[in-house]
Amino acid sequence: VFLLFFTTHEELQTLDVDDAFFSTPEDIAARALKPQGGVNFIRTFKKQVEDQAVNLPPNLNELVQNATYVQSPDNLVWQYFYNLKGSAQYPFPGGIFQWARYRINGTGLNETEKIFSESLNKHENTLTLATLRIFSNGLGQPHFHFNANEMGYVISGCGQVGVILSSVTANFNIGIGDVIFFPVGTQHYIKSVCDEDLFLILAYSTGNQLETLRMKDYFHATADHILAQLFFKKQDEFKKFPKAAK
What do the Gene Ontology cellular component annotations say (predicted)? Predict the structure, then answer.
């Protein structure tokens, strides 16, 4: 089972190998592929009624005798492959985050992580992918991203989500199989409400380093005399909020 994310907001356009083959005139395909038997061999290919991208042939074992292939060199593989489950964990008070991402500063990355990180940044409209585990009754605090839309898929657990904009506030429940979407610049939070952990796969529409601002950071970065004016509270009252950890 694969979970796929595509970097487009338009209808996805796909061309499969068999569709391209059968859309090519027989004589052109024969001249391009040069098979034994020429155009007569090309004519032995028949378009199946069912889409083979979805339904595999029922006699697959008869058709395929050897499905092995030679593994590509590591420096090539790691441009397109990343062991996210085995990567470094980034804990926060409510859970654990793991990323397959680009980082401006590659210090501390191993060689394969550097290859993957640089590969992401070289490709336009790529994705940063992550897993998010929020412990039971834990909170992924309000935050927003400056440079990416975010989409997520719930693997296990259940939770509550809030989306906060200047003119819209939306709150809703999520469970296994649900997809959530946060447009760029939209403040949002996720809370686990089950006895088990809430576990999601997240995708961000950027090949650059993700830029995030959290509520605790921007709240504490605002001068307390400004907060006093905004909330009509005495300036000293804001000392009750613990300073954000560096």
Answer: Golgi apparatus; plasma membrane
pLDDT of the residue at 71: 93
Q: Which of 3.10.150.10, 2.60.120.10, 2.40.50.140, 3.40.50.1820 would CATH assign to domain 84-210?
A: 2.60.120.10
Cα(30)–Cα(7) distance, integer angstroms: 35
> In this structure, what token pair is assigned to residue 73?
């060199």
CB 97 within 8 A of CB 89: yes
Q: What is the pLDDT of residues 149-188, one digit of tens each?
A: 999 999 999 999 999 988 888 999 999 999 999 999 999 9
Task: Output the 3-class SS for 168-204.
Answer: CEEEEEECCCCEEEECCCCEEEEEECCCCCEEEEEEE
Q: How far is CA 219 from the centre of its chain?
A: 28
Per-residue pLDDT at 246 exceeds 60: no
Indicate the residue type of 99.
Answer: W
**Cβ(219)–Cβ(241) under 8 Å?**
yes
Q: Is the pLDDT reported for residue 53 higher than 90?
A: no
